[in-house]
Design brief:
With 406 residues, this protein is of the alpha+beta class. The chain is built from nine helices and six strands, in the order αβααββααβααββαα. The chain has one domain (22-401): Outer membrane efflux proteins (OEP), CATH 1.20.1600.10. The strands form two sheets. Strands 2-3-5-6 form a four-stranded antiparallel sheet, with no helix packed on it. A two-stranded parallel ribbon has the order 1-4.
């Protein structure tokens, strides 16, 4: 199932790269398919599966070919067919009950640990990609907003240039407008460079070469609603908490393995012996006596690891609960700012700028009021865009914290 899903993603990659448009979902898909750390995590799972196969194999039988009582000289004359003792026998170790299954269980827990580690890496990578994506979208939107504001001031500059040429306005007003245009132009240039850096960082997080001219089609304003989950349920959905829970199970499996390892494995042998010209049978049993070494050191170490894993789980759960509460508080604060406070400010700033321009063209107000109104509109729009970026990124952080990504 996993291989077929990977094959489908691999087929989709060329289409994503050639489209020259990139949605946030496509950015995450590219990152999850191309990132080297994920490939390394998948390889570790394959290695763990090999160890599980090895853990389930039974001991091999052993073949013995043995000759005793050979001599080169002596009286009477040595006869190879009669005098030496010849042995041909096989032995087989029978593992103590539950030992092989305990090895398999421990190996399976190791596979699961690697799978959870990979899931955690995927979630963190997806979160970084989405954070970088919305930063790039916001930077591009900010650059476009400043470009539009510069166009508005271009028309204002041209209006003043025409009026000065006609002698209707003093040249000082034209100079003030040109200075305002230069300030906006400088902000626009800085915003363009910031947008380029943000896009470069996005492709770096994805792990692919940057495609010049790629259009980021994500809508910064359409933030999905995040349903409130019960704290305990939200904590248990997190990848790091799942890994910590499994760490306890893995430690328990290791303790069980060390305990069963202390049991001796009997070795049974059976075969043929020829001595003094007679053909006979040989049979025997070999058992290690657990007098000194009862594997007590390894058992104690495994029990300590089990205690450590339980303490780690408590710490991870507590930290996750605090992180979720903090991120949800930040998310709600950003949401209220974007949905309740800033829309009114934007409307008021836009309306003030529109009225100031209309009144100024009628000659009913001075230039400074016009420039102040336009400056406030630009600042409010910039504040709104930056708040939207923060809101989007807070939503991503909350989704990662709740175990909803990828």
């Amino acid at each position: 199932m996993k291989s077929s899903r990977f094959f489908i993603v691999a087929l989709a990659l060329p289409a994503i790269l050639l489209a020259r448009t990139l949605t946030p979902e496509e950015a995450v898909t590219l990152a999850l398919a191309q990132n080297a750390s994920l490939a390394a995590g998948a390889s570790r799972i394959t290695a763990a599966e090999g160890l599980k196969l090895q853990a389930g194999l039974k001991p091999n039988p052993r073949l013995f070919l043995q000759t005793e009582n050979l001599r080169a000289t002596g009286t009477p004359t040595f006869r190879f067919s009669q005098d030496p003792d010849q042995f041909v026998y096989v032995s087989q170790v029978f593992e103590a009950s539950g030992k092989r299954q305990s090895r398999v269980d421990a190996a399976q827990e190791n596979i699961r640990a690697n799978e959870l580690a990979l899931a955690n890496t995927r979630a963190q990578l997806a979160g970084r990609v989405l954070t970088a994506y919305w930063a790039a979208v916001g930077a591009q939107k900010l650059a476009k907003t400043l470009a539009d504001s510069k166009d508005v001031l271009d028309r204002t500059v041209q209006y003043h240039r025409d009026r000065v040429r006609e002698g209707s306005l003093p040249e000082a007003d034209l100079i003030r407008v040109q200075l305002e245009w230069q300030q906006v132009d400088l902000s626009y240039r800085n915003a363009v460079q910031e947008a380029k850096r943000a896009v470069t960082l996005l492709f770096r997080e994805i792990g692919v070469a940057e495609e010049p001219g790629t259009e980021l089609t994500g809508d910064l304003a359409k933030v999905p609603a995040i349903a409130a989950a019960r704290p305990e349920e939200a904590v248990e959905l997190r990848a790091d908490v799942k890994a910590a829970v499994h760490g306890v199970e893995q430690a328990r499996a290791a303790t069980r393995l060390q305990k069963v390892t202390a049991k001796p494995d009997p070795e049974v042998l059976f075969g043929y012996k020829r001595t003094a010209g007679y053909n006979t049978l040989i049979a025997g049993v070999q058992v290690n006596l657990p007098v000194r070494n009862k594997n007590q050191g390894a058992i104690a170490a495994a029990a300590a690891e089990e205690t450590t894993a339980a303490a780690t789980l408590r710490y991870v759960r507590q930290s996750a609960r605090g992180e979720i509460e903090a991120i949800r508080g930040e998310y709600e604060q950003k949401r209220q700012l974007v949905e309740e406070t800033l829309p009114t400010m934007r409307d008021q700033a836009a309306e003030t700028s529109r009225i100031a321009e209309a009144v100024y063209r009628e000659g009913a107000t001075d230039l400074l009021r016009l420039l102040d109104a336009e400056r406030i509109r630009i600042q409010t729009e910039t504040l709104y865009i930056r708040a939207m970026i923060d809101y989007r990124q807070a939503a991503v952080s909350l989704q990662v914290a709740l175990g909803m990504i990828p």
